[in-house]
């Protein structure tokens, strides 16, 4: 339709003018290197923090399940898609998270999109860290609850919001991240958990970038030694540190039961393939038995941050804010010229005026990869 295409062209032109237009690029490769048209880059853009996405143990587990169970699950979990691998994976994830139960969803995004509206609705209050990931915002908006953004990691602001508003609402959900995806910093979990407990609010921590990386692999809530009472909802993803695909929440048994009755992204969506579930299980076993792999991404990120004079990272992510969109794009191209793939992150992913380069580190990076990156970064960012 002409009006539809005009609409699309107009929206794209607006993005182009603001240097915010996105384009897809095709890459091949695995481990920490990618290639395209005969060129090769060290990949400092991915979230494969433990280098597991091409680990032979994950591949073997996936191949075996693929042969036994086929490509697709064929139905949603509540119909016939709930193959036995789910039971085992959910038990493994609950053990990792230190919770009574866990529920696996189709992705991390789908976890928040289904979970948040299953727990909050009209008459409830959601307090959300302003920098929380898009999928928490989507879940919050979809829920129909009153949504109040809170300045990033500001415990006093969370407290003030609870003091002023908590009594006017039936339930309150507080949303934050364990390790913030674009800032690489940790949230003040212990203080937020104390507040939540004092005001009868439910704290949901999305630890997509902490799972497998912080707390000896068990994530940021375990690192902070917080109980299931203090943090009853621990969201994670199978697709970053764990190298597979899917999302999950660690929670109580009764909340896990509620989820299969109320979380629409689980109820009304086809189950994950058995091969992916098997790969995720293999990854959890590796996290539990290979502490040096678990520690390596944070150690490499810290080495880089020290060399560049950046604040110490909480995990494997180091942002360097260059403010405007074009500066970020220019810097990313300069890194690419030198053989390093680093993404320029621009609004609306990050707030206006905070465009940045986001460096992410993996156990699969060699020491030479990181030394080379430091050398180039010093020349490009501190000429
Ligand atoms: C904090 C956070 N939550 C959830 C997600 C989505 O996870 P997935 O990629 O598994 O959909 C992301 C992905 O970037 C994230 O950063």
Which helices and strands, and how do they pair?
Blueprint: H1 2-17, E1 33-36, E2 39-43, H2 56-69, H3 77-81, H4 84-97, E3 101-105, H5 108-119, E4 125-129, H6 134-143, E5 146-150, H7 155-165, E6 172-177, H8 189-198, E7 202-206, H9 220-223, E8 233-237, E9 247-251, H10 253-262, H11 264-267, H12 274-289, H13 291-308, E10 317-323, H14 325-337, E11 340-341, E12 344-345, E13 355-360, H15 367-381
Parallel strand pairs: 2-11, 4-5, 4-6, 6-7, 7-8
Antiparallel strand pairs: 1-2, 3-9, 8-9, 10-13, 12-13
The chain binds pyridoxal-5'-phosphate.
Beta-strand content = 15-25%
Radius of gyration from CA coordinates: 21 Å
Number of strands: 13
Identify the strand order in the major beta sheet.
Answer: 3-9-8-7-6-4-5
What order do the helices and strands follow? HEEHHHEHEHEHEHEHEEHHHHEHEEEH
CATH architecture of the largest domain: 3-Layer(aba) Sandwich
Distance between the termini: 50 Å
Which hetero compounds are present in the coordinates? Answer: pyridoxal-5'-phosphate
- What's the tally of helices? 15
Q: Structurally, how many domains make up the residues?
A: 2
Q: CATH class of the largest domain, anyone?
A: Alpha Beta
The biggest sheet, with number of strands, parallel, antiparallel or mixed sense and barrel status, is:
7 strands, mixed
Oligomer: single chain
CATH superfamily of the largest domain: Type I PLP-dependent aspartate aminotransferase-like (Major domain)
Structural class: alpha/beta
Helix content: 40-55%
Mean pLDDT: 96
């Amino acid at each position: 339709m002409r009006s539809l295409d005009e609409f699309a062209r107009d929206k794209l032109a607006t993005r182009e003018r603001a240097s915010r237009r996105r384009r897809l690029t095709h890459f091949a490769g695995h481990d920490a290197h990618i290639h395209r048209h005969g060129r090769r880059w060290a990949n400092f853009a991915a979230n494969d923090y433990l280098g597991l996405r091409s680990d032979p143990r994950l591949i073997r587990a996936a191949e075996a399940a693929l042969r036994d169970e086929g490509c697709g699950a064929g139905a949603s979990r509540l119909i016939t898609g709930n193959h036995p691998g789910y039971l085992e994976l959910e038990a493994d994830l609950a053990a990792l998270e230190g919770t009574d139960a866990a529920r696996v969803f189709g992705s991390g995004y789908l976890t928040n999109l289904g979970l948040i509206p299953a727990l909050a609705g009209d008459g409830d209050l959601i307090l959300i860290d302003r920098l929380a990931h898009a999928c928490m915002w989507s879940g919050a908006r979809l829920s129909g609850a009153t949504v109040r953004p809170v300045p990033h990691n500001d415990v006093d602001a969370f407290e003030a919001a609870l003091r002023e508003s908590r009594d006017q609402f039936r339930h309150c959900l507080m949303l934050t991240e364990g390790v913030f995806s674009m800032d690489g910093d940790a949230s003040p979990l212990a203080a937020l958990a104390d507040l939540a407990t004092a005001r009868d609010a439910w704290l949901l921590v999305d630890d997509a970038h902490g799972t497998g990386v912080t707390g000896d692999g068990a994530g940021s809530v375990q690192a902070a030694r917080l109980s299931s009472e203090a943090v009853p909802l621990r969201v994670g993803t199978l697709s970053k540190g764990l190298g597979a695909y899917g999302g999950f929440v660690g929670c109580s048994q009764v909340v896990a039961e509620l989820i299969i009755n109320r979380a629409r992204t689980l109820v009304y969506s086809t189950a994950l393939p058995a091969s992916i579930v098997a790969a995720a299980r293999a990854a959890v076993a590796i996290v539990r038995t290979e502490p040096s792999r678990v520690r390596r991404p944070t150690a490499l990120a810290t080495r880089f941050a020290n060399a560049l004079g950046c604040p110490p990272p909480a995990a494997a992510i180091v942002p360097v804010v260059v403010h405007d969109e074009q500066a970020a794009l220019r810097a990313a191209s300069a890194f690419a010229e030198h053989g390093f793939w680093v993404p320029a992150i621009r609004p609306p992913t990050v707030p206006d005026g905070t465009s940045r380069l986001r460096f992410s580190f993996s156990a699969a990076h060699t020491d030479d990869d990181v030394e080379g990156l430091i050398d180039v970064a010093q020349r490009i960012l501190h000429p």
